[in-house]
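Summary for the steering committee. One of the milestones for this cycle was to obtain a three-dimensional model of the protein with coenzyme A bound, which we needed before selecting residues for the alanine scan. The sequence and ligand used are listed below.
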Amino acid sequence: MVKTCALGRPRHLVKPVSATRVAGRYLTHQRGLPGLPVPPLQQTCERYITALEPIVEADELTHTRRVIQEFQKAGGVGEQLQRGLEKRAGETENWLSQWWVQVAYLDYRMPVVVHSSPGLVLPRMDFRDKDGQIRFASKLIAGVLYFKTMIDNETLPVEYLGGKPLCMNQYYEVLSSCRIPGLKRDSVVNHAKSSQPPKHITVVHNFQFFQLDVYNRDGTPLTADQLCVQLEKICRASQETNTEPVGILTTQHRDVWGKSYLNLIKDKTNKESVSAIQRSIFTLCLDGPTPGAAGELYRSCAAVQMLHGGGTQSYSGNRWFDKTLQFIVGEDGTCGANYEHAPAEGPPIVALIDHVVEYTRKPETAKSPAGSLPVPRRLLFNITPEIKQDIEEAKLSMNTLAQDLDMRVKVFGHFGKNVPKAHKMSPDAFIQIALQLAYYRKYRRCCATYESASLRMFRLGRTDTIRSASNASASFVKTFDDPSKQNLEKLDLMEKAVKAHRSYTNMAISGQAIDRHLLGLKLQAAEEKLSVPAIFRDPAYAKALHYHLSTSQVPSKTDCVMCFGPVVPDGYGFCYNPMEDHINFAVSSFNSCKETDAGDLAGAVEEALLDLKRLLEQTPRSKL
Ligand code: COA
């Protein structure tokens, strides 16, 4: 397979290495990957205490130390659970991944909208009308189908991180798949692996769904010109705007949706329509113009549109949020995507989108075969009074959620990765330390901070947590604004904080962080039908998991930004894309929380980034 340099993003549009299928390539690669290790118990216990130090009070820590001692003592429950985990690791492809998908996603009952599914904002495209929208959307579909050829043929370039090959499984999970609501737990179906893989996408326009077949009879993908003709037919057939927005049901709390789903699919027509959406390769949402999108706030408005659709007056009903991958194309050049998180992390999604965007920029060369194509099939829904009632309730909840979410996207234009790199620092660590400083300045305390770290060096690896609030970052942020301290001391502390972050990152991506291990031990206790061990009932554990800052770096080649909601009511979501000479970032918070303010934190991050740069430039490091 072709090799690429950085995580999730080949540096140029990679041609499929083979036009025909290379069966077995994927499995051969996967089998060569190491299994996820179970870290040593003592190591995790020690690192857990260290991670708690900057975020809990001294007396809480004393208590937790005692609890940990009891947990890890010879012959204690910790050892028993550790043995259980090690056995599980020996018997499964990945001891964590199935548990993780269940606990982090499928058992999680909050709406996927805002609470779980990220949005992605692309740069505004250069069309401003319906014709331009349709032309662009056609090329986008063709671009995804081109990428899909690499997946189908098993010729997708393998990605590397730190010189090590990564697990490519997530690429095989994002197309032709969908989340299905359940009464207590959801599931995900992936039709790509079925004996008759789907040949259609779904298109939604003015809340109306269509099945669009995207392959010719001879198996070749429709060309952009052919797709253009088909999308025009769809738009002409769905001009009226008073249709019941049945897609809004997917924005509900999962238990509520699980119940109304059963009611919805009792009707045969509805069941067939829902099944067509679930089986489709992906969903394309054709929106109108972005409301309120002007000037500096344009990207923030676009982010809202990608994250939740803007409420029922806008496009929240023009979606099927259970669908793993939804591309969104507005009439005014606004473009992006929304994805359901259970099957994959951001980087594979962004890598796919990078390819698609590059594809849309190339002139179309494929010649369309002669002959007309069948009219795309409208997916019909019979709306009973009960379904109508469920739709009305979903509308209310969605609008409350939309009003509650505050989203601020910034393009920090002063510098990007170039400055930390020039000072021999990890740009990711630099940004995380700036965020710690911004938070400390606002709240005068450090908080539990989550940054996702890729575990894809391991077979079926997903993520672990980098805990960005460390003892070193705490010392730095507490000193930075102290006028009695010299720059030299501040710089020394900054260097230590950045290094501590990078070293936590290395530990996390090599499977030696603490969070998934602790979760594994907790789930193992449940598996062995033991009562919940005291370590997991300790208030410090709850504090450690209450992430006031939930963060993620999602790098890309395209000048885009991903966004997501906070994971606690009084927290922030912070997603960033460090480009070479600027940084795109998106901050979210809930308006219902009086203590948080996305715009404020975004401003504080900009200021902190500039302050860090100034410190680096004003202080000769040779004196350290
Ligand atoms: N001096 C000079 N350059 C340095 C440096 C140093 N001390 N440290 C790092 N760099 C360079 C790197 O070589 C790299 O160069 P490139 O831009 O040419 O590729 C660049 O700076 C970026 O490195 P860094 O900022 O340290 O981050 P990273 O790329 O190693 O990423 C993580 C760190 C944690 C984001 C990554 O390991 C990861 O796990 N990503 C996945 C996250 C994820 O899944 N998110 C989605 C959740 S939905």
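Key point for the committee: The two ends are 46 Å apart (CA to CA).
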